[in-house]
């Protein structure tokens, strides 16, 4: 068959190991998954109550327009309903953007390491990519500007960045957006925005009027605790959303996911409490790293990228045997570090004991 040439060098996404699989392999009775930045506090009570009592009609196609979720989000953010695009998770939004704007002959810019789906989708569309190395975990935005050519169609900015967790300071991001030509789409992936506590962040939605070439991606997968439902959305100028909507599959979100996301929006107090609890626990990781002289990137998210004294795959394996699934930095482009989702206080107590053992048994740097 005539597969796209580029697929030869590409690998499919490799999901992290499941709790069940690790329990069986290592004969453990309790395993904590801290590998995919899911919410350790679950999801809002309003969602659980709805799921116990749902009378949705399964034989009816979902509302291809996103139902009243669209209205609720437009009210929450003070944007037009036409300014919202739904994706089957932000993952799908990235593929919609790439399909709509990238092909052979076009060019996209992104950081490295960052969320891998930007480069992955751009390559499938045949586009050339420039991956700009982070500097101390931060996007090197001046270097992004230098990479812009006549072919550049999309710039992906992950803010805060995965896997480092760093937030781009407000003035750096705004001065960058000011310098990017208007015909280039700047995608701001804000998957972790609900966890940000640093006041020097960009309120990107308020920038939309001034910069119609930005597209803000958000998701219900992380802080809202609804990763399994696959629902994300983008907010942009209607003139950007309209062509993207032509690429979107007509019923890309199922009825249950749409309704559950609506319920989740009713409980903003849940998100506030997760932000607070997460920030407290994040501080503990900072202290732990400082006490043990381990490098830790300055995270504003619900995960941390922390240095380990041995090879990152070995360190992840060590923690796995103790019942903690984390992400090895080797696969993320950050060797000698592991990415750990910030768990609950109790989960972190146990994680720190396992980490103590790692440091004792495997020695320091
Ligand atoms: C988790 C994540 C996503 C994907 O979110 P979904 O809505 O679950 O597809 C997008 N971007 C970043 C940076 C992420 O970490």
Question: Can you characterise this structure?
Answer:
This protein is α/β, with parallel strands linked by helices. Helix content is 40%, strand content 15%. It is built from 14 helices and twelve strands. The strands form three sheets. It has a seven-stranded mixed beta sheet, sandwiched between helices. It has a three-stranded antiparallel beta sheet with strand order 9-12-11. The termini are far apart. It binds pyridoxal-5'-phosphate. Pyridoxal-5'-phosphate (PLP) binds next to helix 4.
Brief summary of the model shown:
With about 375 residues, this protein is an alpha/beta fold.
Q: Which compounds are bound in this model?
A: pyridoxal-5'-phosphate
**Strand percent estimate:** 15-25%
Element-by-element helix/strand order: HEHHEHEHEHEHEHEEHHHEHEEHEH
**Overall shape:** globular
Strand count: 12
How far apart are the first and last residues' alpha carbons, in Å?
Answer: 50 Å
Which value, in Å, is the CA radius of gyration?
Answer: 21 Å
- Kindly report the average pLDDT value: 96
Instruction: Give the low-confidence spans.
Output: none
**Range of helix content:** 40-55%
**If strands are numbered along the chain, what order do they take across the biggest sheet?**
2-8-7-6-5-3-4
Structural class: alpha/beta
Report the total helices.
14
Query: How does the major sheet shape up?
Result: 7 strands, mixed
Subunit structure: Homodimer.
Pathway: Amino-acid biosynthesis; L-histidine biosynthesis; L-histidine from 5-phospho-alpha-D-ribose 1-diphosphate: step 7/9
InterPro entries: Aminotrans_II_pyridoxalP_BS (IPR001917), Aminotransferase_I/II_large (IPR004839), HisP_aminotrans (IPR005861), HistidinolP_aminotransfase (IPR050106), PyrdxlP-dep_Trfase (IPR015424), PyrdxlP-dep_Trfase_major (IPR015421), PyrdxlP-dep_Trfase_small (IPR015422)
Protein name: Histidinol-phosphate aminotransferase
